[in-house]
Amino acid sequence: MKPSRDLGGDADLSVLLASSSLGKGAAGPGPTRLSDAPVGRRLFVRLVMLGVLLVVVWAFVDRTMLAPLAERVRVHTATTRVASHKDSIQAACEQLDMDPNLIAAIVFAESSGRVDARSKADALGLMQLKVATAEDRARDLGLPLPTETDLLTDPALNILLGTAHIQWAIKHEDGHLERALVGYNAGRGKLRRWIKEAGGYDEWRAGRVEAGNSSTLAYATKVLAQRDAFAKAGLFGASARAEPTPQAPALPNSEPAPTPE
């Protein structure tokens, strides 16, 4: 009986490496153990093994198990970005007498705190302003008309004009914050049309909750929940607390929005 050689756990890989063209001479003798191979070759093999392991894990792990982790990472990243603009948000809100928690929540929902964010509809920057809207608010504030580049590169200006715009929307919706947020997201023209077709905002809201398919209403709910989360966390200090929201009462068949971390 021919005795077998115990080459250890790296035996098969060693033989493969010795007989492959990865070495300097395919026909010449090679190392008999992976540990005897050159450092570069050992690193290559281990990277290949790690890659195979990751592919196997990705193929067999239930994706739903990864979703909560991915969402936590997304929320943490967005919150960190928004917090980096804290001073600009505070300055704009002091100038216009607005709640910084609300403005931070809009930045969170609109752009996840990305200065150069651009939507398919060409809404720009932290607060996702269209150029025409930004120009209107700049005129109101006596500022030079902003360019597209300004809105994508000047976070303080984008925040100031966005703060002015939501303030304008709240005023034109008689102080109704949720309705103003719906208009901010969808456009005031669409909001007027929806209200007219439904016979009133409450009727429109009830229909959207019942249908469960309004991304715009979900946006408003998300902003209000995030505003409360920032207020609770004290991002802008104990003095900056969210004001009560004058909105329609919760409907019996509506579900409360999950409060972001």
How is the secondary structure organized here?
Layout: H1 11-19, H2 39-60, H3 63-83, H4 86-96, H5 100-111, H6 131-141, H7 148-153, H8 155-172, H9 177-186, H10 188-198, H11 201-211, H12 215-233
Helix pairs in contact: 3-5, 4-8, 5-12, 6-8, 8-9, 9-10, 9-12, 10-11
Describe the structure.
The protein is mainly α. The protein folds into 2 domains: 11-60; 68-233, Lysozyme (Orthogonal Bundle), CATH 1.10.530.10. 62% of the residues lie in helices and 0% in strands. It is built from 12 helices and no strands. It has helices at 11-19, 39-60, 63-83, 86-96, 100-111, 131-141, 148-153, 155-172, 177-186, 188-198, 201-211, 215-233.
Give me the strand/helix succession: HHHHHHHHHHHH
Q: Tally the beta strands.
A: 0
Q: CATH architecture of the largest domain, please?
A: Orthogonal Bundle
CATH topology category name of the largest domain: Lysozyme
Distance between the termini: 68 Å
> What value does the Rg take, in angstroms?
28 Å
Give the CA-based shape.
Answer: elongated
Give the domain tally.
2
The percent range for strand residues is under 5%
What composes the largest sheet?
Answer: none
Low-confidence stretches: 4-11, 14-27, 244-261
